[in-house]
Amino acid sequence: MNNNSISKAFAVLRAFIDEQPQWGVNELARYLQIPPSTLHRILTVLRDENILSVDEQTKRYEIGTELIRLSTKNVKNNREG
């Protein structure tokens, strides 16, 4: 991923954290003003890394187990430090 792609990936993550917990591809693409094909590539990488997951019933993306694990570990480390 180039720097622009990384910035877009962070914008995607912020949308899940700051705006709403689940998004469809087209809905999120409109919100972020990113072409759906570009967004789909970013979502695929984030899903493959378990940062995001797909609700099989709704087909909407949501925060995945790896992002939760990383967040929890960060909170724990900050409390210990």
General description of the model:
- The structure is a single chain.
- The chain has a three-stranded antiparallel β-sheet.
- It starts with a helix and ends with a helix.
- By secondary structure, the chain is mostly helical.
- The model has no long low-confidence stretch (mean pLDDT 91).
- It has helices at 3-19, 25-32, 36-48, 65-80; strands at residues 22-23, 52-54, 61-63.
- It is 67% helix and 10% strand.
Helix % is 55-70%
Q: Could you name the ranges where pLDDT drops below 50 across 5 or more consecutive residues?
A: none
Q: What value does the Rg take, in angstroms?
A: 13 Å
The structural class is mainly alpha
Main beta-sheet strand count, sense and barrel state: 3 strands, antiparallel
Keywords:
4 helices, 3-stranded antiparallel beta sheet, globular, 81 residues, mainly alpha, single chain
Quick recap:
The chain is mainly alpha-helical. It has helices at residues 3-19, 25-32, 36-48, 65-80; strands at residues 22-23, 52-54, 61-63. The chain starts with a helix and ends with a helix.
List the helices and strands and how they pair.
Layout (H helix, E strand, L loop, with lengths): L2 H17 L2 E2 L1 H8 L3 H13 L3 E3 L6 E3 L1 H16 L1
Antiparallel strand pairs: 1-3, 2-3
Helix pairs in contact: 1-3, 2-3
